[in-house]
Amino acid sequence: MSAIELYARASVGFDERVAHAVAVLESAAAEHAGRIVQATSLGAEDMVITDLIARHGLPITVATLQTGALHDQTTALIPRIETRYGIEVEVFKPVEESVVHFVQKNGERAMYESIELRKACCATRKLEPLARMLAGAGAWITGLRREQSDTRAVVPFSEPDDKGRIKFNPLADWSWADVWHYIAAHDVPYNPLHDEFMPSIGCAPCTRAIAVGEPFRAGRWWWEDEKAKECGLHVKDTAVSTVSAIGAPR
Ligand code: SF4
């Protein structure tokens, strides 16, 4: 059964939520002309946002992180986006020497050994290239939704990040059914791993399929406590400070 068959449902207010997401994107693009980036994870929500950006011709740069540990199916979405929408996806990679050094020192499976090592891996492979992606940007766009986890239950449509930029979350009030209804209605390309019970997809070593009834993000860093389950991209101060405190690159 495909993710569309499993999840896509039309619901009351869907058209209004789409219109509101477009309004958020239009206003963000106007306010931050030339200095706004969609930081796409290539997940289902972000594919919807990229479709909205392209469909409405919004001047928003689309960029992603290639951590070096993604599934092939995830990486394959980059040329699919470029072909489908005729836009360039900017790809940011970690500093190769930093990754080599981290793996030599801590091993390929370091992320399973402690939260500190897992966060240090995320700092090397994600936070440092994200910082380069957002250097010079006044705003960025994410696919965060309130429904994704308890720690995201109060996600606003826009908020300042800890670097003084504005982070826009245009799908904050969308349900998972909305996301898939939009994907089905507009034939949006998506990661085939979503068809294999992976609603939230990150790096391959840190993503597994979920079972019926498990929470949305249960397949991410499943060996950790629920509250620790962020990579630092969307956590202010504490996680980044933790990363900094253990000497990882920023
Ligand atoms: S998600 Fe896993 S593999 Fe990817 S950067 Fe974080 S710890 Fe490393």
Can you put this structure into words, describing what you see?
It is a single chain. The protein has 250 residues and is an alpha/beta fold. It has a single domain, classed as HUPs (Rossmann fold, 3-Layer(aba) Sandwich), CATH 3.40.50.620. It has 9 helices and 6 strands, in the order H-H-E-H-E-H-H-E-H-H-E-E-E-H-H. Strands 3-2-1-4-6-5 form a 6-stranded mixed β-sheet. Helix 3 crosses helix 8 and helix 7 crosses helix 9. It starts with a helix and ends in a 5-residue tail after the last helix. The structure holds iron/sulfur cluster (SF4). The site of iron/sulfur cluster (SF4) has 13 residues, from helix 7.
Rounded Rg: 17 Å
Overall pLDDT metric: 91
Largest sheet: 6 strands, mixed
Tally the helices: 9
- The number of distinct structural domains comes to 1
- Helical amount among residues, as a percent range? 25-40%
Give the overall silhouette: globular
CATH homologous superfamily title: HUPs
Unreliable segments of 5+ consecutive residues:
237-250
> Can you count the beta strands?
6
**CATH hierarchy: architecture:** 3-Layer(aba) Sandwich
CATH topology: Rossmann fold
CATH class label: Alpha Beta
* Strand order in the sheet with the most strands: 3-2-1-4-6-5
Quaternary status: single chain
Distance between the termini: 41 Å
Which distinct ligands sit in these coordinates? iron/sulfur cluster
Category by helix and strand content: alpha/beta
| Proportion in β-strands | 5-15%
